[in-house]
């Protein structure tokens, strides 16, 4: 084992794996034994498997200004941080005590304010903080819990003692990432994970869900008592709990969508909610549903543009008043950001003795608030050993390490501190512990050591705070980094808490005790989610059609001479223009005089149509599909999501010198992925209301394309080769099996138009659309949304194939153009009726008007 230990980076810091003699600590022995006994190739495979699973699962963390954007992969080290049971018990008890203390402080500051009146908290510390929200003073809290979700960042000093570095109280992030880390790393070391009896995480999330349900029922009872027309929840009926997100561009949106899917909560944005009659309502396809609890990820002042921040586009107007009435539980309570100020750290020991009657179990890193004159003078005298940080969020400043400053910089900083002392704190600079990390150079894996911090999570229950066993470990991005943060490129770790007892398997899924508990439809499908599903369906089909159109065009270019494809070549190029795959003429006059490109001119344009990152290329369209799927992350399966993710990565790399053969290779791979996505959509998704909206999008998109495709094809000469038409519509195999002859107009048009058994035919799309639309008409009693499409269907049936199914037929062309216009109108009507809420909204017992 010593050969492994020799790879570690030794320093004067506490080493999580090694003791002062350089020997492995007892709780690391099992992991090190396994690493030592394995060939480097085996460990390389573990590293690659972890990286692949992170990549394929689409686990992302958006670092602002990073070129990867929302597709930046989450960094996860293969080696976990291991904590023995006796040490964890102290950490858990300390975190629970601290959460209890901070909850009491929050209740007092927004309640009786005895701490301010007695001088235990300086008024300047509270009222100078822009996180203090005067409109939230006096808001009641069920069971006196305002701090429901709490996280604390811990670090270990050289003497081995854990210290609190900072508190996270506004909308703590990372618990979902900790859960994903566990899923991935436990599969990398399955036997070791089992044999070490690692404490499971699911019990914490079960406590979270049960607690929110408990308080949600209390809210529902209050709504029923105070708001006319609202009825109490039935026996066994769960309250509606939602996760409020800032949206997909937030750095932790992936985690939010993952938690929403894991907990079974709708993930909503501010415009998904509305306030009516003192209640928060979720806008669903079936009408308005009362919301009972909100687990928020939006900053305090952005939650309510009416009372808190008028410039916010993220929150819900009137939310503060609903909380004031006790008609919604907000976790965490509005104003909780106040507790994140580092200036509070120095006051917590005395507050703990005053409010809890006991000493603080785990101290904070020594902290001085410069708003106190004595503290300011100490900071000025000891600046070389301190780190200066902002006391309030409104002060935009990165940590300043005193040891880095030259004399003139020190003088400038001291002048700034004296000018606005309330705005700054100073903390002792602590050399935090190092944990082992596994690097992956070209030849063999190596173990190094980097600075590590631990974020531990607590959630309030009616019986006290539950603690997530382990939490989220984070390591610095380099040996010299003194700030451990994911926004600066840090890496995460799974955290293993050893248990003395074997851990039983645990499922978060609730038990169904009777037929009354059965659910066969999603009653909380938001209008935004339905719209996302609708457009995901459209983008899926549109991308496949683009790929098929490009494949047919490139094949024609490669396999036929200009003379052999003379009849259809202009039409094929025109369809590529319609898809914006080829550059369109600049104005109407140029368009009317447009002539097809020559072979030498169109070849680079077709390559660009596949790979360009600047236009409506296939690559760009795939990224749009990825973004749409990203908005649906909690609604689609992991396998479905992985396919979308792998597809998007196919086009991320820029291809500077690609050939037509390269383009064809990528198109073929993309088509395979698109077909797989079709399988997930049609065979793996429950046919609920959300699926029907997605199916509507798919059928509308396909019907529109078929109308455009055939109306343009009718302009081709009679002798044109129709095989490409069958290729683009995926009907070539069917045609050959039926006719065993060269494609002709009458049978081709019959197959594409009239064959109800052909899933790629026009009549198949219309029949499905009419069916789903009539079901929606029956549900909301509005009627008529399918009427125009039914008229098109009847008109199609009445066409005489012998007379109309031929090149240049104007009757068929007119029908195709009219049907295309009807689909445009249909899409607009769906938007107005289900997505935009342009019409008046109604309550839970009514339907959308």
From TrEMBL:
Coiled coil: none annotated. SUPFAM superfamilies: Glutathione synthetase ATP-binding domain-like. Residues 525-835 form the DUF403 domain. Gene3D superfamilies: 3.30.1490.270, 3.40.50.11290. It comes from the Bacteria. Residues 80-476 form the Circularly permuted ATP-grasp type domain. This is Molybdopterin oxidoreductase. It comes from Methylophilus medardicus.
